Amino acid sequence: MREILLGAGIAELHMPIVFGSRESAETQFARAAKTLEELGAQAVCAEIFGPAWAGEAAKPLFSGIPVNHILPLDESATPTLAGAHITALRGARAEFCDCGGFTAAVYEAGGVRYFRAFGITPGSAEGDGYAETIGNLSAMKSALEKCGYKFTDIARTWFYNFRLLDWYADFNRARTEFFRNEKIFDSLLPASTGIGAPNPAGAKIESGIFALKSSGKSGGKWDAREVESPLQCGAPRYGSSFSRAVEIDTEFSRRVIISGTASIEPGGATARAGDIGGQVELTMRVIGEILKSRGMGFSDTVRAIVYCQRPEFYEEFKKWRAQSGAEIPHCPSFSTVCRSDLLFEVELDAAQNAR
To answer: What is the rounded radius of gyration, in angstroms, for the C-alpha atoms of the chain?
Structure first.
């Protein structure tokens, strides 16, 4: 478990778990719930990656909080790639808001008011990709406004799109137009992940958002800014509207939120096509250079999701981790990356607490 200090005596706790069966999932979720209870911490949201039984195992313990449940491309595939990431709060309490079909969590510390929402799934799996994207983004906007936020307060988004490769261009076009209308390009362009995966709701998109704003109380200086990738061009250059990374600084901690990152060369083309070992190595080198540019390293990781186009590709990541000695708390997912020749993707959050 890793923590990010948010205020005096207040911390965000990050707990990844990995499991390969329903029995293992039930055991791991129960253990996580017990640990949080012993710490006096409150679960704020959960990200679940795995078959239907993974969500069923979590529901008795984590119902009522924002949850994204991402199904594997094939629930019968082996080895099973499944796990979850639980975000919790210690030293303060979050409030939960019913946003009409999904839940948002709001909590405050150090002069900052944080917002997390998952499980945003309006629409169906068969609708037009452009229209479904606009509908999903509109649901995000409505939830933010209901809780007193603006769309420009978003620091990070997640999009898990059913059969993504069939309509990724429509998704990108809709997102860019919506962002332009909301003046996002005049503000902070959020970090993001765009992955191909089904969801239990049968929607074309399941999404999530992390936003923050000043609490309006005195004290608590903070800043959020875009971070460039030393080894890659900006994603907008090839039609995707997201930042490579976003850094959030407060007087208590500093966090870097790195978008879903894959084996893409500086000009925007896929690198090392067909070579899973090479793609893993380059992906992790790109992430490592982003962290290095901000005075951090893999040892500062608090959260990571490893997306693999095939379950067996996860072994290459484990091999890289063993060879590099990098300690990266994470959970895996069997999902499609945004191009058919991209075999592997990682999103990662790192943080350093003030001393």
So the answer is: 19
